Amino acid sequence: MKSGRSTWLLRSGKLEKSLDGSRVFCKKILRLVFKGLVVTVAAAFQPSLEATERFFTMTIGSLLSREQIIDSMQSKDRWEAINELVDQLVKAGCVQPANRDQVLADLRTREESMSTGIGFGVAIPHTSSSHVNQVVAAFGRSKEGIEFDALDGNPVHFVVLFVVPANEFQTHLKTLAAIAKFLNDKRVRDALAVAPDTTSILEILGNQKAREL
Q: What are residue 57's phi and psi, to 5 degrees?
């Protein structure tokens, strides 16, 4: 799926402008983040020390409340999972009921271009939308596993869904990169797997900073 907005890809250590669309962009970014190259990406987009510091102190927990967490998802596939988490955002008051279908459509359009199952049991469905005025997110844990057509072919147990306001491209990139880097740590995933409730999950997501992993 092509996008009219130019995206940036990291190639041979340099950023190149590309109009190739979200499919290539997201695949590149997710693979680069999981290879530990997020520092290069962050610095290229906002090179000031202060801005980079703020980026690395971001936590998933800063985007969440207990009402935005599902500790035992019922979904069996990625489409059900996206629906379940969007409904949770509506219940939590993060998405207006009247905007639910359009936000869901935006997420589905993005997901159809390429699965956001990035491996290691993690998926990060995401999109930009004119129907939110700040970054909103939901977290879900599946004990049984969700078929997400992930890059490694394995079921997904942790889903972080987020939506950013339209045209906030740098915010979108930094949020995606920070979440992916955070959940790349096996210690975090192991802790999340055994957390007894939403309060414990929120504590794990909020207390561990991306820059410490």
A: -90, 0
Q: Tokens 């159809």 appear where? A: 112
Instruction: Write down the residue that tokens 């997420």 correspond to.
Output: 107
Parts of the chain with a pLDDT under 70: 1-58, 208-213
Q: What is the DSSP letter of 13?
A: T
Among residues 126, 131, 157, 172, the one annotated as catalytic is 126
Q: Where are the alpha helices (DSSP H) in the chain?
A: 22-34, 38-45, 49-56, 78-91, 100-113, 169-183, 186-194, 198-207
Q: Please give the Cα distance from 16 to 42 (Å, whole number).
A: 15
User: How many C-beta neighbours within 10 Å does residue 19 have?
Assistant: 10
The rounded distance, in Å, linking the Cα atoms of 27 and 124 is: 12
Query: Tokens for 111?
Result: 């997901």
Q: How far apart are CA 53 and CA 109, in angstroms?
A: 33
Q: From the centroid of its chain, how far is CA 81?
A: 14
Distance CA 79, CA 102 (A): 15
The predicted pLDDT at position 211 comes to 37
pTM: 0.75
For 24, half-sphere exposure in the C-beta direction (CA atoms, 13 angstrom radius) is 14
The yes-or-no answer on residue 126 being catalytic is yes
